[in-house]
Amino acid sequence: MTLEGKKIAVLIAPRGTEEAEFTKPKEAVEAAGADVTVVGIEVGEAKTNNGDLDPGGSYDVDKASLNQSSIQFGRGVIRAR
């Protein structure tokens, strides 16, 4: 499946998101050719976890969710537990 030319929003919490639940979907849609924007509660940095306690990586948040219209994106990736 190709996502060339599609704008995809990948959502992340400011902290506490499981690293693999953020990175794997993001990498998959990027590999399919999508233009990915990381959306969070506020612009800045989000920190992930590995398991419940181990720190993961830090990721830049491109856009704040309250400032985004859903019609700006072709799809959104939401990882539910």
TrEMBL record:
Indicate yes or no for the key word Protease.
yes
Write one Gene Ontology MF term: peptidase activity
Source organism per entry reads Rhizobium leguminosarum
- What's a BP term from Gene Ontology annotated to this protein? proteolysis
Entry protein name: Putative intracellular protease/amidase
Alphabetically ordered keywords of this record = Hydrolase, Protease
